[in-house]
Design a protein that fits this description.
Elements (H helix, E strand, L loop, with lengths): L5 H14 L23 H5 L19 H10 L3 H12 L3 H4 L3 H15 L7
Length: about 120
């Protein structure tokens, strides 16, 4: 299997949150989840195939201490550190702090990431 490039990862996350305006994936206590209610996904969860998802991944970052999750993303993408930045863009939003729509937050944050990593914004 070919690993996803940063541009491919970026495009999937951009489409999910900016184009399709999908919500943030959080539990009732505002803890982010790879898979949330009503089909919600976090930025890293967007990259994960449904058949590969495990509830055991919840609570861990993509490059954290969960060995199976870490190995999954290392096998899936070329740059796990970039995926961690996508995950942070999703996880670091809070309506009380940011006082703006989540999709606007993601568009702004992802645009900055694209500039930092010389990526193209999907048309």
């Amino acid at each position: 299997m070919n690993k996803l490039t940063n541009q491919e990862c970026f495009n999937k996350v951009w489409d999910w949150f900016v184009v399709n305006k999908n919500p943030q994936s959080v539990k009732d206590n505002n803890v982010c989840q790879y898979r949330g209610p009503s089909g919600a996904k976090c930025a890293a969860g967007v990259l994960m195939r449904d058949e590969d998802y495990s509830v055991e991944f919840e609570g861990y970052g993509v490059n954290g201490i969960n060995d199976s999750l870490n190995q999954y993303f290392n096998d899936l993408v070329q740059d796990i550190c970039f995926v961690a930045k996508l995950q942070q863009a999703h996880d670091n939003w809070n309506i009380i702090i940011h006082n703006k729509d989540f999709s606007i937050h993601m568009e702004t944050t992802l645009t900055k990431l694209a500039q930092e990593h010389n990526l193209q914004i999907p048309a």
